Amino acid sequence: MRRVRRSAGAAPPALWETSIPVNDTSLDPARAAALGTREATRRLSRLRDAAIARRTPPPAARSLIGESWKRVLRLGVDPDRGGHSGLLSLEEMEQRRRASPISEVLPLLRDGLVSVAHATQQIMVITDAEGRVLWRDGSPLGRRRADALGFTPGASWSEDVVGTNAVGTALVTGRPLQVHSAEHFVRTHHPWSCAAAPLHDPRNGRLLGVVDVSGPAASVHPATLALVTSVARLAESELRERHLETVERLRSVAAPILCRLAGERALAVDRDGWPAAVTGMPPPDRLVLPERFGAGRHRIPSLGPCTVEPLPDGWLVRMDDSAPDGDEARPALVELDVRQGRRVLLTVSGQAGGWTQELSPRHAELLYALARRRDGRTAAQLAQDLFGDPSRTVTVRAEMSRLRRTLGGVLDHRPYRFADDLEVRLLVPEDPAHLLPRSTAPLVAGARSEADERPAAGGRSPADRRSPAGGGGAPPDGRSPAGGPPDRAAAVAVTAGPP
Q1: How many domains, in total, are found in the chain?
Q2: Cα-flanking dihedrals φ and ψ of residue 76, to 5°?
Q3: Beta strand pairing call for 343-350 and 266-270
Q4: Cα separations (Å) of 210 from 109, 258, 296, 461, 475?
Q5: Residue 458 lies in a domain
Q6: What pLDDT is recorded for position 35?
Q7: d(CA 465, CA 473)
Q8: pLDDT reported for residue 487
Q9: Other C-beta atoms within 10 Å of 294: how many?
Q10: Which residue, 74, 123, 149, 221, has most beta carbons within 10 Å?
C-alpha cells in the first residue's frame, strides 16, 4: 500500500490563473483615475453610445468591455434601465449560502475587504455562480446607494439582467476585471466603479461565485482590483488547505482497509476523485468520477469497471478484473455538449455503460477543436487553435496527455483525434455568440464571429430592435420585443462518424 500525496494543490495552473494583456491605448481604470471622474465618464459614454449605435468604437475601448457590450446587445438588455429578475426568497438565499463552499472562507473575505469598503464608502458583495447576491457588507452610505440601484441580497447581477458589470462579466469570462463608470452598459450604473474576481473551488475547478468591491466612480483606485484578486486567491488557498486536511483524514481511515486487500487493485479517493491511498497499482492522477456516482458498480474512464464502496468523505474503489476488456468494453458514442455556457459536459457511452463528466475550460476547448476537426490535429495546430501561436506545443502536449489518461480509449494520437471507431456528437448553441463564453481561443472566437455576420431581423440593428417601431424607445418592461434573451437551451447537433 502506497501513500499518495497528490491533491488539488498539485494541479497545473488553471485557465483562470492566467492574465489577459491590456492594450496600452485602452482607457483602463488607471487612466480613468488620472483623467478625473467627469472626463473619464464623458469619454467612456462616447464609446458606449458608439457601441449601442453599432458604430466602430474608438481604439480606447477595452476589448473585454467591448465584447461584453456586444453580448448584452444581442441579449436585448435595455441600456437605460437594465432588467429585473426578481429577488430570491429568504429561504432559498439561506439554502444557497449553506450549500456554498464560500461560506467556509467568508470571515477571510470580510477581514480582507470590508474595512476597505467602509473607509471608501463602498460595499463588498459576494455572489454565487449564477450572479445572485448572497452576502453584502460595507459602509451604510454605500449600502443605501446599492439599495436604490437594486444591488441587494438575492438580486441577480448577471450580464443578461443588468448588462456589462464587474460581477456579471467576471462570471462570463472567468477572469478578474474592473468596470468603471460608463463602461457599465446600463446608464443608471454609470456613477459606479466595480472590481470583481471569480472564486473557484480548488478541488474541481468549478466556479463558485464572485467577490466584488463596488462604490462611487470617484472612489476608483487602480489598486482596488489587485486587492480584490489577492483576497480571492487567499480564499481559494484556504479552501485548498481544508481539502488537504480532508484527504489526510481519508488516508488515515483507508490505509488499514487497503492493507487487508492483498493482491487486489484498489484505491481510496475523496468525493472529487483525488486519491488518498492506493494498493496493487501505480498511483493515478485525479479520477474523473461520473456525475451520478455512489456505491455499486461503475465504469470509471481511466480504470474501467469498478466496485465502489463508501468511506467517510470518500470512496473505496476496487477494480473488477473479471469484467470484459475487449470490444464490449469500448465506448461507441461521445457527446460533447457546449450549449450551457460555462458548463461543458462530455458523455461517453457504449455496451458496458456510460458516464458524464463536466470539463475544465481548457479541456473543453481542446475537445471542441477535435470535435470540429475529426481528421485530427497536431500539437502545433491545436496550439494555433487555442493560443494563436503554433509554438506553444509543450502546453498542448501536457494537457492532451492528461486528457488521454483521463478519458481512456476515447482519444488517440499522431495526430490527436477522437478514436476512429467512435461516433462523435457536438451539441452547440443555436446562437454562436454563446459558444464557450469564457474562451479566448482563436478557433472559438472565429466560430462566435458568425453571430456578428448574421443580418439583424428585418434588416435592423439590435439597437433598433429594442423598439417595435425601430425607434430609440424601449418596451415598458425593458425587454426586447422578441421576449427578452434568446432561449439558451436551443442547440444545433453536429454528428460525425469516423473520418
Answers
A1: 3
A2: 80, 25
A3: unpaired
A4: 11, 40, 37, 33, 31
A5: no
A6: 53
A7: 10
A8: 40
A9: 10
A10: 123
Backbone angles phi, psi at 132, to 5 degrees: -80, 130
Q: Is residue 477 part of a domain?
A: no
- Are residues 183 and 48 in contact, defined by beta-carbon separation less than 8 angstroms? yes
**Domain that includes residue 389, residue range:** 330-430+491-496
Residue 370 has pLDDT above 90, yes or no: yes
Tell me whether residue 184 is in a domain. yes
Same domain, 170 and 208: yes
- Cβ atoms within 10 Å, residue 439: 23
- Cα angle, residue 106 at apex, residues 105 and 110 outer, rounded to 5°: 125
- Say how many C-beta atoms besides its own lie within 10 A of residue 125's C-beta: 29
- Decide if 110 contacts 124 (C-beta within 8 A): yes
37 pLDDT band (50/70/90 cuts)? low
Co-location of 222 and 337 in the same domain? no
- Cell numbers found for residue 395: 502546453
132-166: per-residue pLDDT in tens?
Answer: 999 999 999 999 999 999 999 999 999 999 999 99
Q: In whole angstroms, give the CA distance from residue 6 to residue 276.
A: 8
- What's the confidence (pLDDT) of residue 348? 81
Residues 74 and 202 in one domain: yes
Query: Which of 429, 413, 432 lies closest to 370 in space, CA to CA?
Result: 413
- Only one residue has cell 439590435, namely 462
Residues 221 and 178 in one domain: yes
- Contact between 362 and 385 under an 8 Å Cβ cutoff? The reply is no
Q: How far apart are CA 483 and CA 485, in angstroms?
A: 7
Q: What is the CATH number for 393?
A: 1.10.10
Mean pLDDT of 4-25: 38
CA gap 354, 348 in Å, rounded: 5
Residue 404 lies in a domain: yes
User: 362 and 396: one domain?
Assistant: yes
User: What are the angstrom distances between the C-alpha of 208 and each of 100, 204, 224, 268, 423?
Assistant: 7, 11, 21, 26, 33
Average pLDDT over residues 191-213: 94
Whole-number Å distance between alpha carbons of 452 and 438: 18
Report pLDDT digits (tens) over 246-264.
Answer: 999 999 999 999 998 878 8
